[in-house]
Amino acid sequence: xxxxxxxxxxxxxxxxxxxxxxxxxxxxxxxxxxxxxxxxxxxxxxxxxxxxxxxxxxxxxxxxxxxxxxxxxxxxxxxxxxxxxxxxxxxxxxxxxxxxxxxxxxxxxxxxxxxxxxxxxxx
Length: 123
Ligand SMILES: [Zn+2]
Hints:
Blueprint (H helix, E strand, L loop, with lengths): L4 E3 H14 L5 E7 L2 E7 L23 E8 L8 H6 L6 E6 L7 E5 L8 E3 L1
Parallel strand pairs: 1-3, 1-7, 4-5
Antiparallel strand pairs: 2-3, 2-4, 5-6
Pfam family, one: Prok-JAB
Keywords: Hydrolase, Metal-binding, Metalloprotease, Protease, Zinc
GO biological process, one term: proteolysis
């Protein structure tokens, strides 16, 4: 499944989650319908620091509508960390990073190998 877009409501929710959890990180699983990212599933215990959140990806459910993951970077650097690059391939194909200060453009999508991936924001 190629992911071509993200629902505006989901993006707003992710930015809000970033703000609410700051200075901690949040992380969750993104589910898609028809190639559009539509839904966030939080995993128990994933709220934490950048170096601790990835552990919980091993507990994620496997289903065909999992597009990938989303998590926040309270340091505002919207690039995958070394830890991110090691868990992305285990967690799906597309990964969102939301960064401080969590405004409209403070996010990016990356493929599992860390390459930027353009997404259309769909109302
Ligand atoms: Zn990260």
